[in-house]
Amino acid sequence: MLRIVRFAVIVPVLALMGCAAGDPLDEELPPMGDFRLAHNIVVADNMQQVPPSRNATPEEWEEILVAEIDRRFGGYEGDRLYHIGIAVDGYSLAPPGIPIVLSPRSVLVLSVNIWDDALGRKLHEEPEQIIVFEGASPETLLVGSGIARNRNEQMQVLARNAARRVQLFMLENPEWFNISDAEAAEALGNVEALAEAAEEAAAIEEAAEEAADEAASGN
């Protein structure tokens, strides 16, 4: 009976995640005012690996993050040049685990700086630390990311989620880019919702398991 109850709770969650999960590059990108990407620099020399984790080199992280930042921000054609600088602080790429019982999640930790080219300076005093989660898809919910995705797929998902999180940080400071208050508020809400939908799978999984346990205890 317990297995039946768990299945009944998880099925609608899978359906929800199947709808929410999507390629970030298919999103309608929000307005960014004066923004035009100039330099896109990623360094990973001092990153730390957080076990348990698959291995990835600094060069691999630099390449994939530069590519995803370019793909997300390269289409903006504002009148002012800005630089995005990213340092990879740490990462964990989930290795294969025991489905359901042990299915670690992948995570990426970054320090982000935004520079105004005309001013010749950074727009904020301290680097913005961003923690990015891999999230899940219907297949990873049941068997875990380490089994359903290979290392390169995990890195790409994290890099795409990271690019979205960088944009979210930028939209939280619309005055840097001369974005109107109305446009900034709408864009911020849209991007934040997309970021949460892409990364909250672990929380959904926990909620499903708790609901299943409660339903089972009531029978």
The portion of residues forming beta strands comes to: 15-25%
Level-1 CATH class name: Alpha Beta
Order of helices and strands: HEEHEEEEHHHHH
Compute the number of strand runs: 6
Overall mean pLDDT stands at 81
| CATH domain fold name | Rossmann fold
C-alpha termini separation: 9 Å
Quickly give the structural class.
alpha/beta
Oligomer: single chain
- How is the main sheet built? 6 strands, mixed
Question: Using only CA atoms, what is the Rg?
Answer: 19 Å
In DSSP terms, counting alpha (H) and pi (I) runs of 4 or more, how many helices?
7
Give the % helix: 40-55%
Layout of strands and helices, then pairs:
Layout: H1 2-20, E1 35-43, E2 48-49, H2 58-73, E3 80-92, E4 107-116, E5 121-122, E6 128-133, H3 138-143, H4 145-148, H5 151-171, H6 181-199, H7 201-217
Parallel strand pairs: 1-3, 2-3
Antiparallel strand pairs: 3-4, 4-5, 4-6
Notes on the structure:
The protein has helices at residues 2-20, 58-73, 138-143, 145-148, 151-171, 181-199, 201-217, and strands spanning 35-43, 48-49, 80-92, 107-116, 121-122, 128-133. The N and C termini lie close together (9 Å). It contains seven helices and six strands. Strands 1, 2, 3, 4, 5 and 6 form a six-stranded mixed beta sheet that branches. Helix 5 (151-171) packs antiparallel against helix 6. The chain is globular and about 50 Å long. With 219 residues, the chain is of the alpha/beta class. It is 47% helix and 19% strand. The chain has a single domain (2-217), classed as Rossmann fold.
